[in-house]
């Protein structure tokens, strides 16, 4: 082959591939394009037919959390009751069909839920693959390993979605049917005609666009109709655009700085209090977050029913910070402040905090750690301060309290077991309070126990709550809805029309 | 010739073996436990010790280094690069899915580069020391000096935002290829323009070109028919060898324009500590590179028999 | 034999011709000026402009004005001040990387050239590989796996980039070895090491300086590129590549955050390239020739 032939061959192949792309372009009019922060097929989601249950409307759960998260509502189950401390009875609706036409019965539901837990143990529940048993055609019995009052709420978690246990494709009971799933490609969702309620006409296309700035640019240029989790930096720009509607909603999620209670310098409560009082949440949210978010007072977002937000006071007081600092044994050593490298807003907040601490006379060094190594450094007690954003995508947020502040919770267990210490667990009394809340079937007892945990934690200075997260969703002019949900993963896409 | 091929083949195998060993060793010394990270991502909560242990066992992470490496290498030779920790797909599938976008980008960037550099290089050499030459040389200088990540954003600002016909991101259509190809192509164009100018200036001094001129042939004919042909030989070789440049550039350009290519796959995998994917992409890059180099070497021999391959091996 | 006793012999000549050539070539002079300006800013600037982290949130994202010629960033910090401090970091990192490359390349080239045979063969295969393999890809993997920090970026880029120096040094060693005075020196009982220093170092200095100058431009781009991807400087360090990456979130509302450091990087690289081209012509040596 001569050189010229070689080159023309390469050029030809290039043109062919370009032409191939042209014809592949989506031309249907009646579709609404939705840009998500990650690929709707990315990850190991075999158990759900290859789609991420957080992002797609193909599956449903037994229970559901309403948009304000105050209660737990029926979805596939119409009713439930606690039979004894570890046994639940769920009555299923009798008019539900899967996308393949099979009818939802208790035994099918039991198989579906067992398969989900078989594929992957789910850490925040006390359920195992053997927990589910059909006692009647539509009567499902669920047995927990320990008493778990939060079971109905936990079952609203998208991970607890019902996928037909025999199907390889996404086969659920949701309002939309998946139109072929190719890994790392957008997923098309078409109306499910046999759905219990009416579903609007247009098909939905869910695509993953990882960069927030790109999602925003795509929305502006009309390449997409709906974009989730837009960057706060371009919020005003987008809001001023008449062709777009931009809305925000507070999530049950808090951005906060954890102060390690067991490191040499920060084991001093006075220093922790100085760090706590030295932060101006109002200003950080208004300026750095462009007003998108709410200044936080508790580690648990005010969207969570038992948040103590309303009774806690704002912890911003430079004078008190000075007093505490003077009372402390702090001798000018450098505190290590780790942040997750992927979070540019947290990076800005951390830098502003560093500046204020510097004015007070506290020396802080910021270190960006990749997401991958961040949590092992945090739970390994390798930092004095760590910026975390934690929240619930669940009807019950009980597991959050346990993970964060119980000595045997995920964040503290490593150090607690190896060193007898922990990271941010204030100790036995708080452990007992958490256990009391966690096992209380009486809502009032639960709420009071969890509120007391928040008061203690704030008093101890192990956490500096910064903001309750608000997510930004943008929609194009020819789209109405969707209704917003506190948890964006639970958005009801049938409320979206053209 | 056979001896030469055998020798080249042997050295290629050594290179590939070394690359695989180095990348494999590198990722095992990395901080952070992939098992815990990945489970946390999937579960949205802290995994239990049993879950971590189960994951490590499933992915062979609790074996000693040499056992892991040998078993990975054995599979890799048969084309099985393992399973992504994170995507729930084989590395082979992932690379196959991401390679086309990078190849498209490479081809388009080369087209852009040739379209800019060939006229610019000719003009520069023919109108040497004229404003045209200076403009072309200055352009080439900026082409090699401007950081791709900034040029990309600049193009988004001045082209994609005002003209909505040009998309800012993604892959799949020709329009989505425009900005990335221009960003990557300008740097490539700069290299080729400089080379073509130098090469053409050299050829214009060759006796046969002077003869052609003295015969009274028109300047255009002299340049097109005689000088350009031989001046293009080194240029074509360089274009062929720009594979490394394109991959370097793809890493950044694909991130700026959010293109699902090999470069962004690698960047994501590095940050996610998805080591099988990192190893796979590096190995595929190494194989592509070894093959291209071999082909270029062989084409030298074919085009210029004076080169003694025995000696240069 | 007087040449042996006068190791600086080549230098004055080269220096004079460099001056002359730069005067004749205004483009390289301009390049030299750009580099000199950035170098001066990097050395004395930080002391003049004050704290790069000072600022108030009330003053954030101000467009360029008399008070802030390059505007302010999302934390109300003056971009010009950060740019000046960043010059020191950016330049220091580039010079450090280049020096490490040079040292590794020098040693490898020397060993390969002096020992020859199998050692030479093995080392040159490594060099071949480094020269043709996409360096950013390799550096990305090294720096990424070691964890993000400027030190790791420095390490990664140094490790992948010494190939061309090794080749230049090796070919110089080989050419010096052929010279008749080497045999003469051997007869005179002068040691091999001393011979290298007296003859070979002056000989190789020119090509290496040219190579390093041209390389510096590429190193600035590569280091900024890795910082852009999030592997380099830690906040609040105002490294130029990291400044572009941080500004990208505000591309629409505050384009100066991306453009100011972007232009600064481009200008510095243009400077190094022009200066390198000029030096190459002046010293009449083309180290890139060996590297083709």
UniProtKB/TrEMBL annotation, chain B:
Q: Which family does it belong to?
A: Belongs to the binding-protein-dependent transport system permease family. OppBC subfamily.
Recorded hits in CDD domains, A to Z, give: TM_PBP2
Annotated membrane topology is: Multi-pass membrane protein
Where does this one sit in the cell?
Cell membrane
For this UniProt entry, what is the primary localization, expressed as one broad class? membrane
What are the alphabetically sorted keywords of the record? Cell membrane, Ion transport, Membrane, Nickel, Transmembrane, Transmembrane helix, Transport
Which domain of life does the protein's organism represent? Archaea
Mind telling me what this protein is named? ABC transporter permease
NCBIfam families registered for this protein in UniProt: Opp2B
Q: Ion transport: present as a keyword of the record?
A: yes
Q: Which GO terms describe its cellular component?
A: plasma membrane
Q: Which PROSITE patterns match?
A: ABC_TM1
Q: Which Pfam families match?
A: BPD_transp_1, BPD_transp_1_N
The answer, when asked if Transmembrane helix is one of the entry's keywords, is yes
Q: Where is the ABC transmembrane type-1 domain?
A: 99-300
Membrane-crossing ranges are: 105-127, 139-165, 177-196, 231-257, 277-296
Q: Which InterPro entries match?
A: BPD_transp_1_N (IPR045621), MetI-like (IPR000515), MetI-like_sf (IPR035906), Opp2B (IPR050045)
What is an example of a GO molecular function annotated in this UniProt entry?
nickel cation transmembrane transporter activity
From TrEMBL, chain C:
UniProt signal peptide:
none
Presence of keyword Cell inner membrane: no
Task: Tell me the Gene Ontology biological-process terms attached to this UniProt entry.
Answer: transmembrane transport
Matches recorded under Gene3D superfamilies:
MetI-like
Q: Which UniProt keywords apply?
A: Cell membrane, Membrane, Transmembrane, Transmembrane helix, Transport
Query: What PROSITE patterns does this protein's entry cite?
Result: ABC_TM1
Transmembrane ranges? 29-49, 89-115, 127-146, 208-233, 253-275
Q: How does the entry describe its membrane topology?
A: Multi-pass membrane protein
Against InterPro entries, the record matches this protein to:
ABC_transport_permease, BP-dependent_transpt_permease, MetI-like, MetI-like_sf, OppC_N
Kindly list the GO CC terms recorded for this protein: plasma membrane
Stretches assigned to the ABC transmembrane type-1 domain: 87-276
Where can this protein be found?
A: Cell membrane
Q: Which family does it belong to?
A: Belongs to the binding-protein-dependent transport system permease family. OppBC subfamily.
Q: What is this protein called?
A: ABC transporter permease
Annotated source species:
Natrarchaeobius chitinivorans
User: Lineage, please?
Assistant: Archaea, Methanobacteriati, Methanobacteriota, Stenosarchaea group, Halobacteria
